[in-house]
Write a structure and sequence with these properties.
- The chain has about 375 residues and is an alpha/beta fold.
- Helices cover about 45% and strands about 20% of the residues.
- A 7-stranded parallel sheet has the order 3-2-1-4-5-6-7, sandwiched between helices. It has a 6-stranded parallel sheet with strand order 10-9-8-11-12-13, with helices on both faces.
- The longest helix is centred in the first third of the chain and has 18 residues.
- It is globular.
- The two termini are about 20 Å apart.
Length: about 375
Amino acid sequence: MQRIIVSVTNDLVTDQRVHKVCSTLVQMKYDVILIGRKLPNSLPLTRNYRTIRMNLIFKKKVWFYGEYNMRLFFKLLFLKKDVLLSNDLDTLLPNFLISKLLGKKLVYDSHELFTEIGELIDRPRIQKAWLIIEKFIFPKLKNVYTVNQSIADIYSNKYDVDVNIIRNIAPKLQHKSVDFSLANKIKGDKKMLILQGSGINIDRGAEEAVKMMTYLENTILYIIGSGDVFEDLKRLTKSLQLQEKVVIKGKLPYLELMEYTKIADLGLSLDKATNLNYEFSLPNKVFDYIQAETPLLVSNRKEVADLVRENNIGWVIDDVEPKKLAEKIKQIAANTKEYATYKQNLKKASEKYTWESEQSKLVEVFKNLK
């Protein structure tokens, strides 16, 4: 049995893409070891493959990345392995060095346009450092895949490398029925909006979603997950005295998260056009909403908007200014016929977009490693 070591910089709990990939690799008879980090508030893990979570001294910025990459290098050096799978640019350097040093096959999964993320746009020196790493390694890669066609085209054109596409599609939700006792407890007779995800960061529309609630009545907003702006959102909610309208919850196990998603009336994805990464993102939450058969309201970012329009499963809005968002949601609530149509279309979309179908592309990548 071949052993594959998979590495990420997060604490593993809510990274559904990596968990899906690891589960598929287990089905392919790989011996999987997933390496990440452990945080003070990390939830326990139960997986059908081995996991290693490192306790790090540094938690943020350059010190964290330096410590993590050095420790990852030595983990990869001394663990038995046949294949290395690096997730995103922040794990690529130690994986690449070990692959060259020991002659091991390397696979690269780019979840996003890393050098174009919002956190780097206003930090040119740090952005340049990551670009140097990317430009040095990417042209030498032989096994690469990413989350959508737009990002694949950018990397292919930039580095003349073949890039496969494996989307962030959710596994088929087996139990679609709504927990009515939970629904009654959470929203009663109110409309419920949900914005979920493990990367609720700056410029992803979360602040606007909170401010939007000042203009809406008989409506409740749930923000569930984690991200750089989470503490800011809590302060904003308090300062606007919206505690009765906005509920902010931390990370939840996936199936528990989906219970909330199923009872929501509208799923939000509100990335702003502040960087190329958000423009071409196709986040997990969009496919979670589809599996939960929850109609979507999304900002006009290319990949997400195309998906919503192609399948006729929700609304696309050009401007995420809070008052305009509120007006759009009022229009949605008033147009019950259109809402019912989108709800019906979601049944078809939830059968079409499943990890069980998408994983065949992953299987092909690993059957044909170079």
